[in-house]
Specification:
Structural class: mainly alpha
Number of strands: 0
Shape: elongated
Distance between the termini: 47 Å
Helix content: 55-70%
């Protein structure tokens, strides 16, 4: 079984678990709050396999509580990442402003960051390659 298949299996186990069926299926907002509070995500699809296993155990009454969210996963982007994003954006964007870059980041991540410095390290690692590809495509067109 591949990791992707195993992850799908764990997600299915979440949705058929006792606690999910009895409570969270009908209280989706509280389920999302639980995921956000303990894992820093909005959906079980965003969880890594280790966290999925923990959640499955909790929802099937094999654990009394969930771990506290690891803050390392939600750290803000580094000044270097922020600088790289701004530099690349300013090199090709028709509107080279921080506000325009922020709108782009929000569209790409499907999250609502209020300021660029609030983008997480993980999201910045995804945005930077996207910006590089866009920058390369602009150079090809010119």
């Amino acid at each position: 079984m591949t990791q992707a298949e195993f992850k799908k299996t764990l997600i299915k186990r979440i949705h058929i678990s006792k606690k999910y069926q009895e409570y969270f299926k009908h209280n989706k907002d509280e389920y999302k709050e639980l995921l956000q509070e303990h894992f820093g995500v909005d959906s079980s699809k965003e969880l890594k396999i280790d966290n999925l296993k923990v959640l499955v155990d909790y929802l099937n009454f094999k654990r009394d509580n969930l771990p506290i969210k690891d803050e390392r996963d939600t750290r803000l982007c580094t000044p270097e990442q922020l600088n790289v994003m701004k530099t690349i954006w300013n090199s090709f964007a028709s509107t080279p402003t921080d506000e325009a870059l922020l709108k782009f980041v929000n569209r790409q991540t499907k999250k609502r960051y209020l300021h660029l410095y609030m983008v997480s390290k993980d999201e910045a690692q995804k945005i930077i390659p996207t910006l590089k590809v866009m920058q390369g495509n602009i150079k090809i067109i010119k």
